[in-house]
Amino acid sequence: MESRAGLAAAPRALPYYVAFSQLLGLTVVATTGAWLGLYRGGIAWEGALQFNAHPLCMVIGLIFLQGDALLVYRVFRNEARRTTKVLHGLLHVFAFIIALVGMVAVFDYHREQGYADLYSLHSWCGVLGFVLYFVQWLVGFSFFLFPGAAFSLRSRYRPQHIFFGAAIFLLSVGTALLGLKEALLFKLGAKYSTFEAEGVLANVLGLLLVGFGGTVLYILTRPDWKRPPQAEEQALSMDFKTLTEGDSPSSQ
Asked: Which residue of 22, 43, 189, 196 has the fewest C-beta atoms within 10 A of its own C-beta?
């Protein structure tokens, strides 16, 4: 009974927003697959269809899985912090690997077709986001999962880690929108303005991307939905304060 009473109850609206975000995220992935299957010929690792692995992998990796990784600390509110950190890191690893496949696919396709690389705003934002994502994971692993990191360094870096996580996620969504518009203009050209079926479906996909990104960011920015500190975290914080400021817990 004591352990059950010590668990912090989730805010009433939070589960509904999380469920809505997952519905949007899965719909984004399904709509991306439908767009590629219906209007782009499907996916293959050779020939012209290799390019189609790029948008699907980037949507699954740097948008859906990255968004879910950011929500881990809102969903798992009462689990051990170490377990939650490992899950957070693993989701980012899976997202990075899938996104890496997408990056290899587009560069291979460009090389095979003789197309130029890295000339568009979409490609510049994409490479920037991918590099920042990798650096963010490395630094986060060093500070929060590597056992040798000092508690003081973790505390000082945590606000930057949270900010850059949200910023990279937002950059990923924006880059996906740029790539979607670029792909439509390359294929449809002037016909895009005539409400071609592919253009309408892609516009719906764009709205779904915005909806998923906005829902995730809303959940992250609600201060009352943050994960409550666990007993061991409060003890560590008190120990650190005692060591750095000379305060004694008994004097509080």
From this structure: 189
Burial class (CB in 10 A: 0-12, 13-18, 19+), 213: buried
CB 35 within 8 A of CB 201: yes
104 closest CA partner among 153, 54, 161: 54
- Distance from the first to the final alpha carbon of the chain: 28
Q: pLDDT tens digits, residue range 145-193?
A: 877 777 778 888 899 999 999 999 999 999 999 999 999 999 999 999 9
Which pLDDT band, with edges at 50, 70 and 90, does 69 fall under? very high
Domains, in order of start, for the chain: 12-243 (1.20.120.1770)
2-16, 40-54, 169-183: which has the minimum mean pLDDT?
Answer: 2-16
> How many residues make up the chain in this entry?
252
Whether this prediction's pTM lies above 0.85 is answered by yes
Average pLDDT, the chain: 88
